Amino acid sequence: MTSGELAEVLGEPPVPEGTWEREPVFVSAAALRRRIPAEELAGRVRALRGVASVQVRGPGLLRIAVIEPPVDVESVRVPFEPVWPDFPRTWDNPGFVVRYGHARACAVSRWARDLGVPREGFRPGLLDDPCHRWVLRVLAELPGRLRSREPGWEAYLLRLALAYHDAHERAPAVPVGDEEPGAVHTARVRVAEVVREVLPGPERL
Fold first, then answer.
1. What pLDDT does residue 184 have?
2. What are phi and psi of 55, to 5 degrees?
3. What predicted TM-score, i.e. pTM, was given to this entire model?
4. Residue 82: its pLDDT value, please?
5. What angle do CA 74, 35, 148 make, to 5 degrees?
6. Which neighbouring-strand residues pair with 15?
7. What does residue 11 show for φ and ψ, rounded to 5 degrees?
8. Is there a contact between 79 and 147 (Cβ–Cβ < 8 Å)?
9. In a designed cystine with 181, which of 50, 117, 160, 161 is the match (CB 3.0 to 4.6 A)?
10. How far apart are CA 50 and CA 47, in angstroms?
11. pLDDT < 50 regions, the chain
12. Which residues share a beta bridge with 62?
């Protein structure tokens, strides 16, 4: 299941909640905004493949836990590119942080091809390390921000870049040393490909 499929049932993008380290969770007030009985809408959501549980909280807030973290690969481009200075190329410059994140994600695609990481067999459930879960959590904000009047793109892109840098360094997407390429690398490379599409920047720095 993708967050896009969930948004289609709800009538609007849900909002990710928590860190997603233990489980991917969304919340939605769509029942209130659409004036639909919360239990009725919850039933529609429960019918979706990949939904673990749906709880109704208060007057109509839905808490939706999904079995695997959704990784949407469509409609991921941010319609905005901040004007940040190119220099200094240090971590104090948000422009460098974001552009370097894009360049790193591009490098992962090249390395994965050279090292024979399989393109097929993507399984999002293998993305169980905290770093990649946090990247997915930040990516899950994107549909809602695309519809928002005040999306806050600069802060969002910086948060995504910082999350991706942590994942890149702590849970490498490509095999290290004598490690054989496997399904977990396929999953992590897919995340890198999505991040590459979201973050603006050059292919190399």
1. 96
2. -120, 140
3. 0.93
4. 84
5. 40
6. 27
7. 90, 0
8. no
9. 117
10. 9
11. none
12. 28, 56
Nearest Cα residue to 201 out of 164, 175, 167: 164
The token pair that represents 154 in the structure block: 């600069």
SS3 letters across the chain: CCHHHHHHHHCCCCEEECCCCCCCEEEECHHHHHCCCHHHHHHHHHCCCCEEEEEEECCCEEEEEECCCCCCCCCCCCCCCCCCCCCCCCCCCHHHHHHHHHHHHHHHHHHHHHHCCCCCCCCHHHCCCHHHHHHHHHHCCHHHHHHCCCCCHHHHHHHHHHHHHHHHHHCCCCCCCCCCCCHHHHHHHHHHHHHHHHCCCCCCC
Q: What is the per-residue pLDDT for 58?
A: 85
With beta carbons less than 8 A apart as the criterion, state whether 200 and 153 touch.
Answer: no
| 128-160 pLDDT, tens digit each | 999 999 999 999 999 999 889 899 999 999 999
Residue type, position 15, single letter: V
CATH superfamily of 94-198: Isoleucyl-tRNA Synthetase; Domain 1 (1.10.730.10)
Digit-coded pLDDT (tens) for 7-34? 999 999 999 999 999 999 999 999 999 9
